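Write out the 3D structure for:
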Amino acid sequence: MNKKAIGSILMILGTSVGAGMLALPIVTADLSFSMSFCLLFFAWLLMTVGAFSVLEVNLWLPSTTNMISMAGRTIGSWGKAITWMVYLLLLYSLICAYLSGLSDIIQSLVANVDIKIPRWSATLLGLFLFGIIVYRGIGSVDIVNRGLMSIKLIAYLLLVTLVAEHININFVFEGNYHWQNSAFMVMLTSFGYSIIVPSLRAYLHSDTKLLTRVILIGSIIPFLIYAFWIFAIQGIITKTGENGLIAMLNSTQPNSMLMHHINEVVQTTWLSNVAKLFISICAVTSFLGVSICLTDFIADGLSIKKYGKPAFLVYGMTYIPPLIIVLLFPGIFIKALDYAGTLCLILLIIIPLAMLYRGRYRYGFQNITLVPFGKLFILACMLVSIGLVMMQIPWK
């Protein structure tokens, strides 16, 4: 593979293996690892079908096309309107979650050097530092992301390998085997890389074979990383108690609590620093990947450029709404990820499958076929996804 393909895989990893990953062992605190693994596999499978649906539809259209234009060409004006609304809600939810997690981590890190700053200052600092990278474009994000992902993967391997001796198998297999929709929604969010597929299609010059390999490799690696991460963290931190995973789930500062409790378990300064580095980079790479997607989406939807005077509108629409929400609700990390999971089902699975079905069987776009098994498979995936959305609605 060429450098761009490797960079694209790393962008998928950066978008997936990020702040959402930090929530996985926390939101599955009530579940056994076996059940967590089954839910994780189902989430990966469903989101992979969604990703290839997005790619297939996108390849029917010009390379600058994003989700808004895709929906307009296949579903019509009503589909375009729904896609606009859900896409904005999803990406705003993700940026809220990642900016909240980033603020928590920045505040915790500066506290380690005896500097105390208020949470709002950490939020503004994080947005300023990493918003500049996004402003410079996907090329800059790719270069920065390659470096961060390389460090993150090394830190992850060190962390998981060296905490292995602290794993208590009894902790791992405690818990129930019930379906837990809230945990599944966070898992879906953790595989939400499909939002970057249209940008990658343009970046890789519509090379279908290369894009297919990039998506498969880029999605399987996070699945394996998540499985080992849940196993490791649930094996070293108890589920219950004052310092347990369930306590983190109910905290407004889950990421800093996770760093603190890993430090308590390993009690090795350099390994604790590796854990802090890994958790910090997770938040950064997620923020960068989702920000690129939202800026591309807004520019495509409004048919404007991301440079010159129009850039102020694009980046203002990208960051001002989530900034206000995070300043008002600083502990929104877990809740935003749960909410984003429902939106992922709608935007990255249901809508792409609807576009795929209409494009193939209404308009005859079948020159490229990436999603297998035909009509029944597409309709079955749509029905399952709609059922999962319905389960999120509080009926009482």
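The radius of gyration is 20 Å.
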